[in-house]
Amino acid sequence: MQKKTIETQxxxxxxxxxxxxxxxxxxxxxxxxKTSYSPYSSFRVGAxxxxxxxxxxxxxxxxNAAYPSGICAERVAIFYANAQYPDVPVKAIxxxxxxxxxxxxxxxxxxxxxxxxxxxxxxRFEKDIKIFLYxxxxxxxxxxxxxxxxxxxxxxSLKG
Length: 160
Ligand code: THU
Prior knowledge:
Number of strands: 7
Number of helices: 3
Structural class: alpha+beta
Distance between the termini: 23 Å
CATH class: Alpha Beta
CATH architecture: 3-Layer(aba) Sandwich
Strand content: 15-25%
CATH topology: Cytidine Deaminase, domain 2
Helix content: 10-25%
CATH superfamily: Cytidine Deaminase, domain 2
Number of domains: 1
Bound molecules: tetrahydrodeoxyuridine
Largest sheet: 7 strands, mixed
Radius of gyration: 16 Å
C-alpha cells in the first residue's frame, strides 16, 4: 500500500494588486452576473473568457424549471468561446458570484462539471488557462485548470 498526496497551488491577492488585463476580465465577469437567469437559486454567476486573439467572451448561469437542464456560467462562456473561435486558445477565465444584493465575500470555485469542461479546453489547445476567482475580500488565482482537477478523466482514459 502506498499513500500519495496531491497539492494544489493557488495565490490570494487583492483586486488592486492585479494588472489591468486581469482587472478588466474580472469586471466583465462581474458585469455579466446581471444577465444570469437564476429564479430558482437567486445565485447569479458571471464568467469572462479571454482568448489569445484578445477577444473576451462572457456568459452567465441559465437555470430551468427542470433543474438539471440548467447550466453554469463557466460552461456557457467556454462553450460559446469554443463555438465562435474553434481554433483560438483560451488564455484565462474570470468568475464572479452575486447573491443577496452583493458580490460574494469569498471567491466561488467552479463545480466539477465545469472543471472537466475547462480542462478539456486547456488540453485541446495545449495552453494553460489562468483562473481568476473574484470575491469582495480577495481574489484567488490558479495558473491552470489541472490545479483544480487532479486525477481527471481525459481522452487517454477512454483507451482503457
Ligand atoms: N453556478 C455557476 O454558474 N457556476 C459555479 O461555479 C457554481 C454554481 C450556478 C449554478 C446554479 O444556477 C446556481 O449557480 C446555484 O448553484
